[in-house]
Amino acid sequence: MFLKALEIQGFKSFPDKIKITIEKGITAVVGPNGSGKSNISDAIRWVLGETSARQLRGGGKMENVIFGGTQTRGAMGFAFVRLYIDNTDRRIDVDADEVIIGRKYYRSGESEYTINGQNVRLKDIYEMFLDTGIGRDGYSIIGQGRIAEIVGAKSDERREIFEEASGIARFRYRKNEAEKRLDAAEENLVRLRDILGELEQRVVPLQKESEKAHRFIQMAERRKQLEVTLWVDTVHKAREALRDQQRKLEIARADYNRISKEMDEADAQTEQVRAEIEALNRKAEQLNLDIRTITQDISGADARLAVLENNRQHNDAAAQQMREELEAAGRSSEQTQAEKGRRCAEREKVRQALALLHEQEHRLTGELQQILESSLASGEKRGALEAQLAGIAQEMTAVKVQQAAQQSAFDAAQTRLAAAGAELEENVRVQARMQEESADTQAMWNDAKARKETSTNVARGLELKLEAKSNAQQQARQEEEKIRREEENAAQRLSVLQDFEKNLDGFHYSVKSVMKAVQNRRLRGIFGPVSTILTVQSGYEVAVETALGAAMQNIVVEDQQAAKAAMAFLKAERAGRATFLPLDTVRPAHFDASRLPQGAVLACDLVHFQPEFSVVVSNLLGRIVVVQDIDEAARVAKMLDYKNRVVTVDGQVVNAGGSFTGGSVQRSAGLFSRKQEMDELKAKLERLKARRETAAEQTAQAEAETAQLKAQLESAQQRQTTAQTDEIRAEAEMRRVRAGLLQLDQIRQQLENECSALRDKLEQHDRQMQSDAERKKALEEKTNALEQELKEIVGNDTDFLKQRTALSEELSALKLEILSKDRDIESIDTALEHLHTQTGQAAQRAEELKAGIARLHEENEQTAKEMERVRESVEQGRRDIQQKEQEIAACASQRMEKEGSISEQTRKARTLSGEKEALTREAARLEEQKQAKDSEYQQTAAKLWEEYELSLEAAEALCQPFESIAELRMMVAQVRAEIKALGNVNVGAIEEYEQVKQRYEFLRVQVGDVEKSKAELLELIAQLCAEMREMFAKSFAEINTHFGRIFQLLFGGGSARLYLDDENDVLSSGISIEVTPPGKVIKDLASLSGGEQALVAIAIYFAILAVNPSPFCVMDEIEAALDDVNVVRYAQYLRRICRETQFVVITHRRGTMEQADVLYGVTMQEDGVSKVLKLDVAQAEAALV
């Protein structure tokens, strides 16, 4: 296990996200004071769970670890640190090769801990690193100034780091947890024993009262069973009469349910078919989308083919140009060979002429020597002068030769300079022309690229719009279909309710007969049932129906005569009985509404009606009060002295006189509810129609916009393809122009260098020629003086002088001619060398041209294969389009079949709806007959409920067998007498006794469990203490041994040891340090210097690492107090142990840096913001992290 990397963001002076990679060995972090080095150590401590802001140098507030901002940067809202640890050895109990510990803290105070991305608790991180030396309390992180605490701390304060090193931290953690549980168990035991004592005092008295209550309940139950038996016998007689009618009604309902089920199945099938049609529509839409995509790909392929064809033609043209250049090079090579032959012949001819000139020079030199020798014989002084003249003549000849050579070189350099200047001017002109061509090409490329990007952005935008609009179109179509189905369902439901209304379903047979007679004009002056002349406010239908009761079916008539005529009609037709309300005889009810409390309202104020019916409404509803709930009803009834009937919104009633009626609501065929529903359905149909028309308009608009967007998208894609082709062509032309410009620039550079060299050469030749001229002049003056002196000596002997002078001049001329020939040979050699070089370059160019032609040929072959592949892709795309069009046609055909199926299902649904309506009417008639039978039965059952609050089923379960009613009544009287003899009875004692007894037994068991747990915890603590003593004693001895050894290494001698203040108390004894540096006697550690104390602490720290090496250690300037010699010892020892432990050292000391494998430099290039620079010492490469 080792530390792999540290990632920081927003922590202290590191606002930017950085990741510091940490290799094995020693990693040093350096930098000036205040640069943020120690913040790296704080980040590692923080992510491992440090919760003390003071330990992190945060000023007491944890939010101070978040980057607080600078003058140029704002403050961050969170701090985030992530630690990467290699776990291939599975030293950490996590099944992963890499463990990533993360912590994130927000300014709001929220904190998050993660292990490999999973949220965990701080406790989980703490427990994971126990006994590893890592963690907030471990010894793997030594903060700035903390090393001295090992020596400066009290003996009992040093235990923590030794316990962590000895591996007992986990056991001490378990021991502390066990002690906490033990304390809790002690507290629970005391509390449970107190409660148990209180319960023991209550159990016995409650037991006696409970037994008496049990006897009372048994006798009361016996009395109830006997009395209920009397009532049930009466109820049974009423129920038998109801059963026959119930069977008939159930048959009708079964038929109704069967038809309803068939209708539901038909609706389900229709919905399924609609879903299949919708799926086919989506499939067709997807196929169309695929076709558009393939079409776009084909358009792109056409553009690709155009580009490939353009590349092929460009390669053909380039290859043709290379072949022409190769042919021209061949012809130039033949001319060069001919020129080389001619030059070689000319060189041979010049060499032969030069040989003759050398012979003449030799001859003239001999003659001149003879003259000089003869002259020497004529006189010593004369000979000396002539010898001087001869030497000067030779020197003059050499000067003239050099002058001629310099003049020749000067002329050649001038000629070449003029030629190079002309070539340079031509190069500049060609380069300027190609620059203009490059600018034009760049402009073309920029324009093509801009057009491509614009077209791409437009196409993407149109694709998004098209997708959104297609979705909107689909949603609009679905919404239209949904509204249409809702409209059909609402219309169908309204039709059923209208038929019910027309057929007077829910009304008594007598009412139906009267209303049909009115329709047939057999009766006059009939307005209709009360329910038809009233409209109830929404929400109060149940209350008004309950208030009216059976009066809803009373018939309102014009006067007494109309009522009498209707009654005679019913009697004659044997159609039953009905109640009539003549407008001229019915009297209104009178009630002072001001007496009503707030929230109560008269029932007559909750209905709407024609003014002529106000008397009837007042008579029926004028004294009935409506309130919200039964509690309010009881309160209002009491306020009104129980003189008015009070009805709640949900149908509960407080009757006049104080009786209560309630329970489940028995609607009278839901007449008001049906009328209310019909009105709501009519309004709903109007709304649905408007919504359907709006949805149809939206669907049509969406379809039009989708078609327009498709056209725009195809146009944009075409423009994109054209721009892409233009861009590729322009890019190829740019590459060609850039290559030409690069070649011209190289030639220009060569010409400029050559011109510069030639100018320097001309200046050199000019200076040399001036020097030669001055030298020649001096030689001529000297010659004239010597000749004058010689003339004075020889007198009239001018023949000798003339002969000597002539020979000298002839020899000089001959040497000049020889020099000229040498220059000719050099010129010819230079020309031959140039021709040879030209021949080699031509051969090399020919090879390059051949290779280029081969390369272009290979590229054309690849291009041809690519074009063939693209053409095959296009053909495949067209085949796919054809296949998808066939699938679209198949989808359309299936959709037509399914739409036909929907029509068939709709016809079937209409047929079933008619049958269902007929069954509804039949069921309503049977229900009316059943209600009459049920009314008698319900009244008897209601009396049973009012007396005993028992339903009939519950009462039947309580019935007792009996032989006669008289015997049963006598048994009831006997039980009542026995109950009276018991006196006062506390029935609640039974439940109270059971609760107290149950709690007493439960607490007694709990006390035993707690005492058992206490014993187990004590045993566990003793076991842990024994293991901790053994482990700590062993580890402490090893640490002491290593401390003495390491102390001698670091101090260069001396002795040191660790010892326990109380060896009998291994687990809590303080730890003392005794050291003797070389040559010193130390009685108190405080007498050591600061550096010596630091070195002692380092020796102890290294001894701990020798016993229990931490996987990695972070040390912040622990050697700051050491001198240079001790720093070197410290660093060398650090190098010795870095194989076992990975070290991250924050330091200012050179000796430590020299031992580091990697250096990280921390700087503040920006005020308040730390940056990290990495230097790999082995490779000596620096990089900014």
Description:
The protein is α+β, with helices and mostly antiparallel strands. It contains 20 helices and 25 strands. It has a seven-stranded mixed beta sheet. Strands 2-1-4-5-6-7 form a six-stranded antiparallel beta sheet. Strands 13-15-16-17-18 form a five-stranded mixed beta sheet, sandwiched between helices. It is flat and about 200 Å long. The relative contact order is 0.14.
Summarize, please.
The protein is an alpha+beta fold and 1185 residues long.
Overall mean pLDDT: 78
List the uncertain runs: none
Distance between the termini: 24 Å
**Rg calculated over all Cα atoms:** 61 Å
Structural class assignment: alpha+beta
What's the number of extended β-strand segments?
25
Instruction: Kindly state the percentage of residues in helix.
Output: 55-70%
Strand order of the largest sheet: 8-21-22-3-23-24-25
Shape label: flat
Major sheet description: 7 strands, mixed
Strand content: 5-15%
Number of helices: 20
Ordered list of secondary-structure elements with their pairings:
Elements: E1 2-9, E2 18-21, E3 26-30, H1 37-47, E4 78-86, E5 98-106, E6 111-115, E7 118-120, H2 122-128, E8 141-142, H3 148-152, H4 159-166, H5 169-378, H6 380-502, H7 509-519, E9 526-529, H8 530-533, E10 535-536, H9 541-548, E11 555-557, H10 560-573, E12 580-582, E13 601-602, E14 607-608, H11 614-621, E15 624-627, H12 630-639, E16 645-648, E17 653-654, E18 660-661, H13 671-794, H14 798-948, H15 952-958, H16 965-981, H17 988-1051, E19 1055-1060, E20 1071-1076, H18 1090-1107, E21 1112-1116, H19 1124-1137, E22 1142-1146, H20 1150-1155, E23 1158-1166, E24 1169-1176, E25 1181-1184
Parallel strand pairs: 3-22, 3-23, 8-21, 11-12, 15-16, 21-22
Antiparallel strand pairs: 1-2, 1-4, 4-5, 5-6, 6-7, 9-11, 10-14, 13-15, 16-17, 17-18, 19-20, 23-24, 24-25
Helix pairs in contact: 4-17, 5-6, 5-13, 5-14, 5-15, 5-16, 5-17, 6-13, 6-14, 9-13, 17-18
